Amino acid sequence: DGGITQSPKYLFRKEGQNVTLSCEQNLNHDAMYWYRQDPGQGLRLIYYSQIVNDFQKGDIAEGYSVSREKKESFPLTVTSAQKNPTAFYLCASRSQGPGNTIYFGEGSWLTVV
Amino acid sequence: AQSVTQPDIHITVSEGASLELRCNYSYGATPYLFWYVQSPGQGLQLLLKYFSGDTLVQGIKGFEAEFKRSQSSFNLRKPSVHWSDAAEYFCAVGSGTYKYIFGTGTRLKVLA
Questions:
Q1: Which is more confidently placed, A75 or B29?
Q2: Is the dihedral of CA B87, B92, A59, A23 positive or negative?
Q3: Is B30 an 8 Å CB contact of chain A?
Q4: What is the arithmetic mean of pLDDT over B52-56?
Q5: Which of B49, B91, B94, B102 is least surrounded by CB atoms within 10 angstroms?
C-alpha cells in the first residue's frame, strides 16, 4: 500500500534537547512538506522540498531544520531554539500532474516535558 | 491576500440530517480546491477536490462540493449525516505551485 509513514507517533522532549521526526513516503512524489497544527489555528507550513537536496523555509521555520537526501525521506528536527514545540506535526507529499494534491501522514505528537 | 475562511468553528447536526459546511476563498489565480477530514489525533484524509471541469464534485463517504466562482465558495455537503462523520473538516486552496492555504477547520458534532 502506498502512503506516508510518520514516526514516532508520540515523542517527549526535554528542555534543551533536539528531536527528529521521521517521514517516509512510497508514493514517488517529488514534493514533500512539514506542517505544524495547533488547536484552532489550522495548519502552518514549516518547510517544504520540491526535489531531492533542495528545501525551502515556510512560514514558521525558526527553530526547525530539515534534510532531503532521498526522494522518499524528509525528516524534521525540532531544535532547542524552538521555544514552543508542543504541537501535532504533519508530514505531507504532493502528487504530480493536474490538480496537484497534498496527501498527509498520520501525524506525530511532540510534547515538551 | 490569499486566504481561506471557514466561518463556522463548530456545527452540530442530528444523525440523518443534511449537512453543509461553508468555505470561502480569496485567490488570484484559478484555484485548486480541496476538502479534508481529520479524526482526533489522526492525519488529514482527502475527501474531494476540484481543479477543472464540472463544478459539482463527488467525493468519498457520500460527500459532494460545489465550486461557485462568482461567490468564491466551495461548500461541502452531505444529504444524510452518519455518527461516524463526526470529525474536523478543513477546506484548502492551491494553484499548482508549492503553496497551499488551509482554513482553520470546522468541527462537526453529530447527535444520535
A1: A75
A2: positive
A3: no
A4: 89
A5: B49
Give dist(CA B41, CA B18) in Å, integer.
26
Half-sphere exposure of A96 (CA within 13 A, CB side): 7
Q: How far is A113 from chain B (nearest CA, A)?
A: 19
Residue B53 CB partners (closer than 8 Å, separation 6+): none
What is the per-residue pLDDT across B62-71, written as a single tens digit (0 to 9) for each?
999 999 999 9
Return the bridge partners of A11, or none: A110
Residues of chain A neighbouring B92 (CB-CB closer than 8 A): 102
Flag whether residue B49 sits within 8 Å of chain A, measured between CB atoms. yes
Q: What is the mean pLDDT of residues A102-113?
A: 94
Polymer length of chain B: 112
Q: Tell which of A4, A100, A103, A111 to mutate to test the B interface (max B CBs under 10 Å).
A: A100
Q: Could you give the percent of chain A with pLDDT greater than 90?
A: 81
Option in B94, B99, B103 nearest A42 (CB): B103
What's the pLDDT score for residue A113?
A: 84
Q: Is any Cβ of chain A less than 8 angstroms from the Cβ of B31?
A: no
**pLDDT for B1:** 73
Residues in A touching B57 (Cβ below 8 Å)? none
